[in-house]
Amino acid sequence: MPMKTFKIATYNVNSIRSRLHIVIPWLRENRPDVFCMQETKVEDDKFPREELEKAGYHVSFKGGKRYNGVAVASLEEPMKVSWGLDDDPPDSDRLIMCRFSNLSVVNCYVPQGRGMDDPQFHYKLQWFERIRGYIAGHFSPDEPLICCGDMNVAREPIDVHDPKRLLGHVDFTPEVWEAFDQLKSWGLVDVFRKHHPDEPGLYAFFDYRVPKALERGLGWRVDHILVTRPLADRSLGAFIDVEPRRAEKPSDHTVMVAAVSYTHLRAHETVLDLV
């Protein structure tokens, strides 16, 4: 069976219509197999489907006017697409699953949490439990699965520019670390850290409110690409492309990319052989 290099990218666009001038050229230059977007912030009837299709991509999406929204652009048309978690509220504008032959991609936008005393923080912790339950109910750790997106958690001190000062933030606190670890314990590997285990200063989020945050290296890594062990063992690399953050009118996030090698199956085949 033929081996395929599968390149996946994740990007919190913070309004897809406001970032098309970044997204379309990036897709044409980099040609990822799958491009996962969060915070698209657009109603479905106004989503810029045509522009992405002209760039050579199939696109699946769900969102609303001002908040949330997830989308997946892919070179290959998905065999199956579903939205939302299994329980209530489904939050269908925060999670999308696409199945490609024998590989599945879950693109999610985890709630930020607002503040430690805010009910939304408890909801965030619940969300990690719910997505773990969703993944456990639909997949096996032995099959090729990618779970990625803006997960609003910086897990390690090297994932933030000032760990002492930022400790206790809703994205950098022990409660969230534990919730994130529980999700990964199902059988997911942080593929970025696999390839950059001890390297600090690699961030995918630079707050608008901090003057010259990118130039000063004042960032966070709250975006993640998690993969099951069969893909982690065959991963080829991962990196953060900061150029989209340097562009005119950028998102506060930038693009994270990972590449894995796996046995590509035609649509009618069902074998999950990764050898």
| Amino-to-carboxy terminus distance | 9 Å
* Overall 3D shape: globular
In N-to-C order, the SSE pattern is: EHEHEEEEEHEHHEHHEHEHE
Please report the number of helical segments: 9
Mean model confidence by pLDDT: 94
Explain what this protein looks like in three dimensions:
The protein starts with a strand and ends in a 12-residue tail after the last strand. The chain is α+β, with helices and mostly antiparallel strands and 275 residues long. The chain has 9 helices and 12 strands. It is globular and about 50 Å long. Strands 3-4-2-1-12-11 form a 6-stranded mixed beta sheet. Strands 5-6-7-8-10-9 form a 6-stranded mixed beta sheet.
In terms of topology, how is this protein built?
Elements: E1 3-12, H1 16-30, E2 34-38, H2 49-54, E3 58-62, E4 70-74, E5 80-83, E6 95-100, E7 103-109, H3 119-138, E8 145-150, H4 163-166, H5 174-185, E9 188-190, H6 191-195, H7 213-216, E10 223-228, H8 229-232, E11 235-241, H9 243-246, E12 255-263
Sum up the structure in keywords:
single chain; 275 residues; alpha+beta; six-stranded mixed sheet; 9 helices; 12 strands; disordered C terminus
Concise synopsis of the structure shown:
This protein has 275 residues and is α+β, with helices and mostly antiparallel strands. Helices cover 27% and strands 27% of the residues.
